[in-house]
């Protein structure tokens, strides 16, 4: 049978496959939210699966060997291979299983997922296990950073800090992964500074942390000064223009700014919902707090005094101060209706 692209049946089959894939994706939203290194635990080879049934001393020893193999690959700059070995070591103790025997044909569904996260009865054994996990997560983070897979690097740092909340390396690496991508904005910048401040509080002598924190704080200070200078410049322009054209331009500018503002709010909301879908509720809350803050500032900015439309009270007040109040509506400024605004610097 002809299955070329010119064959209508082939085209129909292609569309059907895409539709099935989209429908299947809706059944595994939780699975898709997990980081790759945990997803891959579902597909481990028999050599790893067999180790899971061994007594803990043998089990941890085999996992350490896997980590050592990963370190050898890392030192050879074979980062993908290194990550694969770290994933194996982690999958000996924390892994996914599918309770549906026919899942490989049917596909992955959240309802069929079983999570095993082995815990030791002996506290000392648990310390050893946690140390192994922390080491593997950190190594994955470094490897993924070098591979420019920054979101996975951040997730690995998250898992590290869940086990070891005072891990300076995880805070430092996460800060780097937050600010390195070209798409990073103010939110990532602030989160990176927060991470570095936490790391500095734990280890004030760490040179890498101190250096990067100092650089980011200096950059933020310069940016805020630039923003303030730019904003202040709006009130220092004295060129006079035709009243009607200036007012129309101002109205158009304001409408454009409002449209842009609303678009940014929608994009931020979408980002917050994305974090919520991944279980990162603290990031979603941080974004929504910023949204609320921005809306409050904009609301205050819009409460302005419009000199193009002076009220009787404004005209009377102008006369009391020796000005011809009837001429107030002839005052013009470049690029905006002159407003007296009370703004809170944030």
UniProtKB/TrEMBL annotation:
SUPFAM superfamilies: TPR-like. It comes from the Eukaryota. Gene3D superfamilies: Tetratricopeptide repeat domain. Keywords: Repeat, TPR repeat. PANTHER family: ARYL HYDROCARBON RECEPTOR INTERACTING PROTEIN RELATED (PTHR11242), PTHR11242:SF17. This is Uncharacterized protein.
